[in-house]
Design brief:
MetI-like fold, mainly alpha, 0% strand, 279 residues
């Protein structure tokens, strides 16, 4: 009988034993990031935050999304889940930002290097198809319980769309534009930052949207390892069979997901319209 899990467990235990100081340093940095973002979100009064986000949604995605944002966040505040919502939003922002900082460069590398793309493809397939709960196991072993393992698991789960869609966007840049840019003597850096990335931006922003959505779903699951936020409300409803509390937490998650989805989608649509008009 082949027991792959035994060797994976030995490898993770080896990492935990030999790189303990490194994981402690990473945990401290991520904790500072999450607490700082959560503190900044907590400074702003709830009614001010709701109005500002509603205005942003209205300006970017239309009046209907603006009204939904105002009503949805008002409902969350009225149910008494505002602190948990800000906690969840802080976890999403930190996780998604780190996933994008890592994922977009890897997507550029995969688009420019055929061998790197071939190696990354099965790795990304593995990351996307692995059940989300499995990521919680090494996260707890490396960082213990709390927000940091939740962020760690979320980064791994949410990163693949950023890599894939960045690669796709750059590969879809017309070859004649690339050749014309090179013929004018542009360097690889100039080609990337002045031609490929601007033209690929609508697709990359779609990847940003998907990364944020996957981060939200994983952050809720991370409540199982004491990450807190709205996921904790849903988990309490499940474990204690409190249907009302679980339903309220689920509604808050859905409202937050719709707002984030519509607002982030609007940035990609604006870029796509600009690209079409320029062509």
């Amino acid at each position: 009988m082949i027991r792959i899990g035994k060797y994976i467990e030995q490898f993770i235990n080896w990492l935990t034993h030999n790189f303990g100081p490194f994981f402690k340093a990473v945990k401290h940095v991520v904790e500072v990031m999450v607490n700082s973002v959560q503190g900044l979100l907590g400074i702003v009064p709830a009614y001010v935050f709701i109005v500002l986000l509603a205005i942003l949604a209205w300006r970017r995605a239309g009046w209907s999304v603006g009204i939904f944002t105002l009503a949805g966040l008002g409902l969350i505040f009225g149910m008494g889940y505002w602190p948990q919502t800000m906690e969840t939003l802080a976890l999403i922002l930190v996780s998604a930002c780190i996933a994008l900082i890592i994922g977009i460069p890897f997507g550029i590398w995969a688009a420019r290097n055929q061998m790197a793309g071939k190696i990354m493809r099965p790795v990304l397939d593995f990351m996307q198809t692995m059940p989300a709960f499995v990521y919680l196991i090494p996260a707890v072993l490396f960082f213990g319980l709390g927000k940091v393992p939740g962020v760690f698991a979320t980064i791994i789960f949410a990163m693949p769309p950023a890599v894939r869609l960045t690669t796709l966007g750059i590969q879809q840049v017309p070859g004649d534009i690339v050749e014309a840019t090179r013929s004018f003597g542009a360097t690889r850096a100039q080609l990337l930052f002045k031609v490929e990335l601007p033209l690929a931006m609508p697709t990359i922003l779609a990847g940003v949207n998907q990364t944020i959505m996957m981060a939200l779903s994983m952050v809720v699951i991370s409540a199982m390892i004491a990450a807190g936020g709205l996921g904790e409300i849903v988990l309490k409803g499940i474990t204690q069979l409190k249907i009302g509390i679980g339903f309220e937490g689920g509604i808050a998650v859905v409202i937050l997901a719709i707002i984030l989805d519509r607002v982030t989608q609007s940035f990609g649509k604006k870029k796509a319209k600009t690209k079409t008009s320029n062509q």
